Amino acid sequence: MAATWHDIAARKQRERADRIPKKWRLPNERFQDNDSVLDVPRRCGLLSKQDIRITESYDASTLVAELAAGRLSSLDVVTAFCKRAAIAQQVVNCLTEIFFEDAIARAKHCDQYLREKGKPIGPLHGLPISIKDSFKVKGYDASVGVAGFCFKPAAANSALVDLLLEAGAVLYCKTNVPLTMMALDSHNNVFGRTLNATNMKLTAGGSSGGEGALIAMRGSPLGIGTDVGGSIRIPAMCNGLVGVKPSHGRLPYVGQEGGAPPGSSKLGIESTAGPIARNAKDCEMLLRVIGDSQPYMYDPDVLPQTWAQQTSLQTSLPSSRVQQPLLVGIARTDGHVAPLPPIQRLLDDVSRCLRSPTLPSWEAIRVVDVDISSFGPQILKVFNGIMSIDGANTWFNHTASTGEPMSPWLQTRLKRRPAKPLDEVRSLQSQRTELQTRFQAIWHERGGYWQTPADKTTAGGRMLDVIICPAAPHPVPPIDRWNTTNYTSAFNLLDYPAGVLPVRTFDSADLEGSVPNEAPLNGWDTINRGLWNDVDRRLYVGSPLSVQIVAPRLMERKLVEIMVMLEQALSPLKTLRASASKL
Questions:
Q1: Whole-model pTM?
Q2: Which end of the chain is more exposed for a tag (fewer CB within 10 A), N or C?
Q3: In which residues is substrate bound (predicted)?
């Protein structure tokens, strides 16, 4: 008799639990009764003072420097993060595959190499990095939460895994995803649901939700997720982190477990891999290291460009001051779902902060308002059409083999349908190309998308450097209540690099405001309004509020360099409400 999904899940969860050393196990405590569990690693008594210092006092960029100089040992750093990841797993259920023993052995090798050779293995020497479950690591499963994929260890590494190892990184765990990796809440029947460490009543996001929760708990200094509709940016938003989705062709992607037959991505929208971290500088560091590690030798789709050859933010040395102000466009709505009052207020805060002559950003940044609302409805229609070309039959076939049901969020959203015929696929891709072509006018101001004549005069005929827009039309929602992905998936369809930047937290003043009296724009807009009118809004207090930063295609370097600047420019909003009276 074939094993059922219940049997497989139970066996898989026992395997995962057994890979956590007994001395790192927490006493039975009902963490789900707490709104926030961020302090559990600190107060549980399992971490030494050195463990706490390593996991809380350094970011990934600083750790790399300290490890290369020998001021920190990889063994100490890797052990500290393994312990903290073990704690995080027991609290928020964020891990899938655990290979702490392999990681500690590799950390010892890194330290020995540095002692004997007098130089680091590579630019990521000894740095622990966590990765999403879809990445293949030889000898371990890449089940992506599908029972039928369990206990079938990978025979080879994914391309990016090989690159990271050759750069000196230490991989120590893989992180949880939703079933099908098309859901916005990381739940599957094999590993269960990942929880949000900031507020366990809110979603941790998906599909790289395990990465987001782990990094929020400081169980990883740097993680790598994947994104085909928002799967890096949404968990970054939910967990108050920075996440970057590159354009296709910038980072190696081959060798992933995506659940689809080989070659399927060439008919649809290419997923991309990218970093999730606690600050923009760490994301920039990882992209720079990958860019300088000949990534095109690992994946034929990757462009043969070094970091120096990629489009950069022009600076005048040695002051690193921009030669001319950045030109930043602010787009407040996609025209499909209207942002709720706190998101509108957040964009107002950001706009006022960047425009204020009392702040340091005044001389370095110029802001214009940009209208992209005519694109939203058509982008969503084309994106959804392309993402459903096989009628979800592949995923239903995978789950049918063990009798596995769909996750709750998917049960009313994912249905078997006939696969789309070739002519319909061709038509959808043609519409995509048309949208990409039309959107080019946004960057150059052709077609009246910049909202005032004064904006054009101020810009002096220049091209926008980045666009700031919402990451979602709502705050971090309760579990299984995520609405539309259009604010993120639009930039997958257009193939623009995009990142999420946390700005401040939701405070009591954000509870004010109401939705318009006019009829909703559509069914999605109705659902979105329910996240304001049909919930206790106090649930959102203390949750992170983030914006999305978007750059033209393949301008990842410019994007992350500007994100570093904007992170600093918007920092006053972490302690002040950007109101007219204060700015």
A1: 0.96
A2: N
A3: 181, 207, 228-231
